[in-house]
Amino acid sequence: MQTGSIRRMFMAILLAIAIMSTNLLPSTVRASDDPIADFIDRAYELILDRKAEDAGFQYWYQNITAGSLTAADIVDQFFHTDEFTGRGINDEGQVEILYHVMFDREPDDGGKQYWLKYLDAGVSISGIINGFTQSPEFAEVCARYNMVPGTIPPVEGRDLNWNVTEFVSRAYDLLLERRPDVGGLNYWTKEIASGNIAANSLVNELVRSPEFSAKGLDDASVLALLYKAMFDRQIDDGGCQYWLGILDYGVSMSCIISMIGACPEFAEVCARYGMTTGSVKLEEPRDQNYQLTGYISRAIFGLTGRKATVDECNVYTDAILKGTKSIAVSLSEFASWAETSAHLPANEDFLKAAFDICYGAQDDAKMQTFLSSLNGGKTRSKVMMDITNDPAYKAKLTGLGLKDPMVEPKKMIALTFDDGPYSPVTNRILDVLEKYNAHATFFVVGNRVNSYSSCVKRAVSLGCEIGNHTWDHTSLTTLSGSEVASQISRCNNAVFNLTGVMPSVMRPVGGAYNATVSNNVGMPMIIWSVDTNDWKYRDSQHVINAILNNVKDGDIVLMHDLYASTAAAMETVIPELIARGYTLVTVSELAEYKNQQLKNGQAYTSIR
Ligand code: ZN
Question: Which is catalytic among the residues 73, 418, 555, 561?
């Protein structure tokens, strides 16, 4: 750095110090044709309505000529003096003054309305002054007066994004019928403008406030306000009916605000205001899954004839979402309520309601079965569990986009029985399965199916699976490809003709297969991971130990429904496995729950 430039810098610093200490300097003589002096005089006259006093004039003149204060500063600082506020000039008057000082002219109507709109929405006067500084008109005026225009950088949240400020203010106006306090306006504008908080969250907070609740508005009126606040328009009849319908599911208004917030129309409004859309934090369990809450509340209505309470919606939705209670168990609880008996004293009426809830349809044949169970003394709660133990129930839930958490078990076992059917044993096993709402797979020998047809049909009606165990129990490894195919198709046809259900899994005799079998069987081959050797020992305790000492999640257990000892063992094994948290499923269900697509010709010993 050269000596000369160092000296120049030193002189500049001295000058700056001198200017800052204006009281040490002699008064400047005011030149009659000095444009800067004219601007200062005009500011005093227009804003403070008086002539400048000498000290004040000196302060401004010297700071402006030194470049440490600007035209924007003098206007902003004058507007914040007690002297100016004491004049009590309304918003319109203030905007008119700004036109005169900063644009040196009378305001036009359109322009005046523009500034007034934002001033009215809560943008500060400093924000408005800064708005004026952004205009080329102000730059021209300043050039004429030899002034540096300057800006007033926004400090307060409410000045950061005027459109957001307007949205926040309007929401307060509509929902609380008052202006936001400056703190609230600063907070919301800043957070929404910076994208930290979604605009719909503001609406949600206001609607949830005690102040809003105290207004005691009905749902339709609240929805009309939400449309004005969020869609910036009147609600239409269709929209109103739609949201009232969702509210009827038992969800809160927060859930509706969240859903309105997800509409493209709200995204358009947000784009117009420069805001982001986002999700509203939903705190109540009933709002976490409105379809589920709707299902629960309509079930309660169907059985008791009254609307579900908010508590009921929260408690049941919460338990189901947490997986501590299934939808089916919830339904069976509603079925056992005294209110349900009082509302539907006749068993037929109870069943109609239950079918409507579980299947969305009536089924006379099924209803007769359940009716005889009820008339035979089975409880409504138990019958409701039976009604949910049906593919129609699962289909109904799927149609609603729901899953029953306990229909989607975590730990599963597939019990399988070969070489039947044999009604004395098969039926005894089915009795236990029915009692515990459990499923199993029966790998039947095709040529026995018609001799024991009723127990095969019963197994299907209980949700059990019929698998293929060849036509006549021939070992497949001794056969040609076409003979293998024939063994399979004859058995499949026998099952299909009897039950209307085509088997989708098979078990080779003795678990034995070779390449010819794999290539011609045309079905997944289900082997086993737990062998009970029930055919060898014919002893219940042996079967019980073989299973209970060995099973784990995803196991496939081999048994035969030919031996009374095996059926007897099931009376111990099935409740014990359920007590240990296992769900007893068919082989196909096991594959489905474990997300495995079973392949034809491939052997499976377990599915995990
Ligand atoms: Zn066999």
Answer: 418
